[in-house]
Amino acid sequence: MFDLSLNNKVVLVTGVDDMLGAAICKRLAEAGAIVWIHRFNTNVAVDLQREIRAFGGLASIITSDLQTAAEVQAVVKKITKENEKIDILINYAEESADTSIDQLTPSAWQVAFRVNVDVPFLCCQAIIPVMLGLNGGTIINITSQAASTGDVGPVYAAGKSAFQSFTKGLATEFAGTTIKVKELVAPISLHNQNSSLQVKNKVMAAVANKILLLCSPYLDEEIEDLVRRA
């Protein structure tokens, strides 16, 4: 029987602004993790924090634009001051505007890439030294099937494709070390407006369970083997 408990593991989940992000945070808290819920604003996160605490889970809210290295370092400093470590980083923050090419402005393109690519880069760059100082850690980057299908508009597909390539490069750089870099490809069905809430809830639960599995060491050898073959 696999032990998927995350007792005393400190987890930062970025960009928790929708139902999937909430499902991930709740699943990790259920497994015993100390969850830091990052939001670009606090509106939804407060309710999520209450929900997690209601079943005995541990959750804190942290807000930041994460647009600069200084802002990211401030987030890292706050978490490590309170919990002394960060064991797991889950890069979920994303900008998913479905905009056609004729309506897409240069500023909207730049904003999408800042959130979909720059934010996870800055978070990885700031948190990896913390993990290395604590004998390792796990980074899980949530990409999307849109990287290969082109769904949800050109800017989203392009951003997720760049994020996917970044993830592969980072995994290659740290292969064989105590830093484990993993990818979860989110189903494009989550963006389907015609899918029922019941179907989406099942998909979100499956994704949250897969995240929990990726937080464990059980797939590490298989993942590193895939990196070596890529």
What labels would you give this structure?
alpha/beta; 8 helices
Please identify the structural class as seen in this structure. alpha/beta
Order of helices and strands: EHEHEHEHEHHEHH
Strand order of the largest sheet: 3-2-1-4-5-6
Helix residue percentage: 40-55%
Number of strands: 6
Q: What is the mean predicted local confidence, pLDDT?
A: 89
* Sheet of most strands: 6 strands, parallel
Count helical runs: 8
* Computed Rg: 17 Å
Q: Give the N-to-C terminal Cα separation.
A: 31 Å
Strand content: 15-25%
Low-confidence stretches: none
Shape: globular
Explain how this protein is built.
By secondary structure, the protein is an alpha/beta fold. It is 52% helix and 16% strand. The protein has helices at residues 19-30, 43-54, 69-83, 106-132, 146-149, 154-173, 197-215, 220-229, and strands spanning 10-13, 34-39, 58-63, 88-91, 137-144, 179-186. A six-stranded parallel beta sheet has the order 3-2-1-4-5-6, sandwiched between helices. Strand 4, helix 4 (106-132) and strand 5 (137-144) form a beta-alpha-beta unit. Helix 1 packs parallel to helix 2 and helix 1 packs across helix 7 (197-215). The chain starts with 9 loop residues before the first strand and ends with a helix. The model has no long low-confidence stretch (mean pLDDT 89).
